[in-house]
Amino acid sequence: MEAIVGMGHFCDTHGPSVILCTHPADGPLLKGAPVATPACDGCRSIDDRTVLVSEGSDRCFVTTRSSMDEHVARLLKDVVLRSLSIEVVSEDAESSGSMYFGDDSRGHVISHVFSLKDSNARGFTRRYCLVVLGKNPISLLSHYDFIEENLRKTGEYLRRKSEQSKAPLKPTAALAQLVDEPHVFAQLHMRFVFLLAAQIYHLEPPRAPDI
Question: Which residues form the UDENN FLCN/SMCR8-type domain (predicted)?
Fold first, then answer.
């Protein structure tokens, strides 16, 4: 496991759930299928059979709803659980903020937690987290500022879209409905690929593009 970028939310039905996962893959495509996980309308992102791929000169980056590796899928589930239910951030009244946690057995994590407006959720908000999971804490923390800035800006973008949305919501609305953006998961794929393609374990990364 080199580095993985993921997204999760707190579902009123299923609790903390992974809804998106991006990781590098050697070769043109990573063979296999995403690990099946329970999902309601609120948990849905891209279809279970859909794979978003960005190819580079020597490797590609793959985004699926859940990881294609069962071990990684369990690690990400644990990361989302800890981000949304165990670890605590309190940088503002809406409980958004960033944190680092981890260990050598379950991986090391930089996580950004934030909330989006959802009139049908408990407390009228839905909690989300954006996470980078890696195995090397020194490399991860040496790029903490860059990673945290990108996760935070992505969360701020989604929050602005949610606050500007006038679209009526279903009783259990997915992220695309909350931010009124049908292509939001393609946008997140590109943002996650940027993080991984910046070689956060090897090089000083460039400035992030605006979205």
Answer: 44-211
Pairwise CA distance, residues 77 & 95, whole Å: 21
Kindly list the strands in the beta sheet with 3-11, ordered across the sheet, starting from the edge strand earlier in the chain. Answer: 52-55, 60-64, 15-25, 3-11, 125-134, 107-117, 97-103
Q: Does residue 206 have a pLDDT over 60?
A: no
- Of the candidates 186, 176, 178, the one whose C-alpha atom is nearest the C-alpha of residue 162 is 178
How many residues are given for the chain? Answer: 211
Beta strands 52-55; 125-134: pairing state: unpaired
Spell out the domain ranges in the chain.
Answer: 3-197
For residue range 109-128, what is the model confidence (pLDDT) as tens digits? 999 999 998 887 777 889 99
Contact 15, 85 (CB under 8 A): yes
Evaluated on CA atoms 194, 8, 163, 51, the torsion sign reads positive
Phi, psi (degrees; rounded to nearest 5) at 22? -125, 130
Contact at 8 Å (CB) between 148 and 98? yes
pLDDT tens figures, 16-47 = 999 999 998 864 445 555 666 667 778 888 88
pLDDT tens digit sequence for 55-94: 876 778 999 998 888 899 999 999 999 999 887 776 554 5
Indicate yes or no: pTM above 0.70.
yes
